[in-house]
Amino acid sequence: MKKLVMLLSLMVFTCSSDDNDRENQNNVPQEDTLLGTWELIELKVQVNNSEETEWNSVPESFRYTYIFDDNNIVTRSNYINCEGTYENNPDDYIEITFDCPEYPDYREYFVSFEEHSLILTPPGSCDESGACASKYRKVISN
Questions:
Q1: 99-119 pLDDT, tens per residue?
Q2: Is residue 67 packed enough to be buried (19+ CB in 10 Å), middle (13-18) or exposed (0-12)?
Q3: Is residue 55 within 8 Å of 135, Cβ to Cβ?
Q4: Can you tell me the distance from the alpha carbon of 36 to that of 134, in angstroms, rounded to the nearest whole number?
Q5: Which of 96, 102, 58 has its CA nearest to residue 80?
C-alpha cells in the first residue's frame, strides 16, 4: 500500500511539473518585469477625435522592440547602432533617453502590466500621433 501511495504521489508531482513546462513552451512570461525584450503589438488611439479610445493592432512592418537590461541600458530595434538609458523609479514610471546623433529621443511613461503585456502610457494626454498608450508582448527566447 505504501508503494502505491508513493507511486501516485510521484505521478501527481510529475504531471504538475509537465504543466509548468508546457506553460513555458507556450511563451507565457512567468512574471511581470520590465527587464527583457518587448515587442510593440498594439496602440491605444482616440476614436474620431473623441475622448473614447480603443486598442488597434500594429502591422508587423511597423513593430519594433525595446530591450531593457539590468544595467539601465535600453535598445530599440529601429534605432540602428544606438543604445539609450532608462530610469525606472518608482516602479510604475519610466524615463527613456536616447542621445544618439540620428535618434535623439526622450520619453516618459507610466508603466503597467495587463495579462503579462507591458503597457506604456505617456503622462497627460495622447501624443502628437494620437497614440494614448502602447502595448508590448514579452519576447521569450527558447
A1: 888 778 899 999 999 999 999
A2: middle
A3: yes
A4: 17
A5: 102
Residue with cell 529601429: 78
Task: Give the model's pLDDT for residue 19.
Answer: 44
Q: Quick check: 92 and 80 in contact, CB under 8 A?
A: no
Give the integer Cα–Cα distance in Å for 83 and 94: 16
pLDDT of residue 52: 87
pTM for the full model?
A: 0.75
10 Å Cβ neighbour count for 79? 17
Domain boundaries, the chain: 1-30, 31-139
CATH level 3 topology of 31-139? Lipocalin (2.40.128)
- Tell how far CA 19 is from the center of its chain: 24
pLDDT of residue 1: 43
> Distance between alpha carbon 63 and the CA centroid of its chain, in Å?
13
